[in-house]
Amino acid sequence: MTGSGSRSRSGSRSRLWRLAPLTLVVVAGAVGGILASEPAGRLDPERSWCAPSAARLLGCGEAGVDLLPLVSTAVLRGVVLAAVVALVGFAIGTPLGAAAALARGRFERGVERACDLMQAFPSFILALAVLSAVRAPSRVHIGAVFALTAWAPFARLALAQTRVLRDAAFVEAAVALGRGRAGVLRSHIVPNLLGVVAVQLGSTAAAIVVSEAALAFVGLGPRDGVSLGGVLDQGVAAMLRAPHVLVVGALSVALTSAAMLVAGRAAER
Amino acid sequence: MSPGAGRGGRTARVLVARAVEALAVVVALASLVFFALRILPGDPARLVLGDGASAAELARVRASLHLDEPLGAQYLRFLRGLATMDLGDSFRRPGTSAMSRVAEAVWPTAQLALIAVGIGAVVGIAAAIAASGPWLPVRARVWIERGLVAVAAAPLVAFAPVLTWALAARARIVPLPGDPDAGPAGLLFAGALLSLPLAAHVGRIARAALVDVGRAQFLAVASAKGARPVRVWVLHALPAVVGPIVTVVASQLSALLGGAVVLERMFERWGLGTLILEAYSTRDLPVLEGAVVAAGLLFVIAQALGTALHAAVDPRARGST
Q1: Gap between the Cα atoms of A117 and A4, Å rounded
Q2: pLDDT tens-place string over residues B283-298
């Protein structure tokens, strides 16, 4: 008993440690924003492409933009966007997948095929095409486009897990006692599949961080210009003159998405 | 009716059903883009021409896009165009059909994707055999596995520019793919960059499948009959794990196409990605719709080729196709 209790405590501690990289990234973003002496995106052509120094810790980019406030703000906004879209996908996909598996038949097959469709198609190309419907995309537009496909992995996982749960003895007992489908879903199915489905939150959020950077890299970033993809784009344009811009942009994208991936594993049991 | 004829009939029915599903996928995606461009707030004609356009110019674009018709009639016209592969003329190049512009751009992207799939499959399978075969010490095999996990998690948009800077701009080991004189070597380097995440995914899945198959009796029999380890792993074990490899390649195709857009933009290389970005910036709606249809068709054809390849190599897959 004591052994299993201490194992459970150490398991909880190790799960909490998985949130450490994301916490570090967020704290670094917040501290970077505080340390910066100016708002993100302020231009000063005289210091264009300046190398990192005590005054400009990460150096400067195109038109003298200070990279520290730009990257700090872009990381924080990227993390918020990814978390919100992943949670929206989670909130839509989980009940949908669970309800489809409980309903069985055509509804189940239909949801499964819709998941195949959404997961299989190049969502990046779809995002490009749909974003062309607005003049200058904002973060809300970008988030909405990602949410179009973000629900699918959650629905698929919930569907697979509910297929196992729907034949469990406690679910059959609840049905036999007269609980309706909605009640069974709310009280017995969803609480039991949350742990499995929550792991997907990290993968989805990491994919959104990368996709947002990729969209901004190809020129479809948010209209305020504050995006890690924008920093990467500047870095590619000046890779010979100012390689520090490329390194800062690439490291920021890689570390933020890796932190999201690791944080998602905190939900693992 | 013979059992063979019955199985053939079942396979034909399943193939027809798959083809119908695949077409439904393409129509659904094209419809999503069609409705997004017409239902979302904002006038598509104003998007195309900008705020300074005159009423006459706006009316001309509305007429050419049939925006003055009811939405249902527009959609029917769009579906008819989809069936005949005629989505109207490109706005940017009047007199040139949107689909012909898309057709020009498909091959360079398909070429890049094919090279990436080829390199990714070969490198991934080689890494999987090295990580599961008897040649290397356990520690080296563990490091290969860790390397595969790290590369699979690394975003292409972050590492492709850094590798290009390190290998092409600094060390000058490879040519810059955007350089007009780079030739096939540049294309090969771009394909290799695109293939890295795919190679890592193939390596991870193939390694897991090979470890599983490695315990099978038919491999022990082949070894007992005197076959060398290379023969046992390449000729006997590998065909048994083609299914998972084809599945992972098919599941990564969407990421591959997205990656191709990023690399085409980075190296300023002509292709479907560059065309989509150009059509986006000029709001060339027929070309945008055509490009999404082409990407969908490319994707569906690649999936079908994957299924056929799996069935050709693995007899167990023939009954289930």
Answers
A1: 43
A2: 788 888 888 888 878 7
Contacts of residue A129 in chain B, CB cutoff 8 Å? Answer: 33, 36, 276, 280, 288-289, 291-292
Alpha carbons within 13 angstroms on the beta-carbon side of residue B207 total 24
Would you call A132 and B283 a contact, using CB atoms and an 8 Å cutoff? yes
In sequence order, the 6+-apart residues with CB closer than 8 A to the CB of A125 are B257, B258, B261, B276, B291, B292, B295
Query: Distance, in angstroms, between A239 CA and closest chain B CA?
Result: 6
Return the closest-CA partner of residue B279 out of B267, B287, B271, B290: B287
* Pick from B290, B236, B232: nearest CA to B99: B290
For residues B284 and B90, the answer to whether their CB atoms sit within 8 Å is: yes
Q: Which of B76, B43, B54 has the alpha carbon at shortest distance from A133?
A: B43
Query: Phi/psi of residue A239, each to 5°?
Result: -65, -25
Minimum Cα–Cα distance from B283: chain A residue: A132
Ordered alpha helix ranges (H), chain A: 2-17, 20-35, 67-103, 105-120, 123-131, 139-165, 169-176, 181-184, 190-217, 228-237, 243-264
Q: How far, in Å, CA of B23 to CA of B8, rounded?
A: 22
Say how many C-beta atoms besides its own lie within 10 A of residue A96's C-beta.
20
Closest CA to B151 of B179, B193, B189, B107: B193
Contacts of B253 in chain A (CB under 8 A): 120, 122
State the pTM of this model.
0.83
Q: Which two tokens stand for residue B64?
A: 């050419």
ipTM of the complex: 0.83
For chain B (length 321 residues), average pLDDT per consecutive 10? Answer: 56 70 78 80 74 81 82 89 85 84 90 92 94 89 91 91 92 82 86 94 92 87 88 88 84 83 88 87 84 80 74 64 45
The reply to whether A217 touches chain B by the CB within 8 Å rule is yes
H-helix segments, chain B:
3-39, 44-49, 55-64, 71-83, 98-132, 138-153, 156-163, 183-213, 217-224, 229-231, 238-240, 242-267, 272-281, 285-313
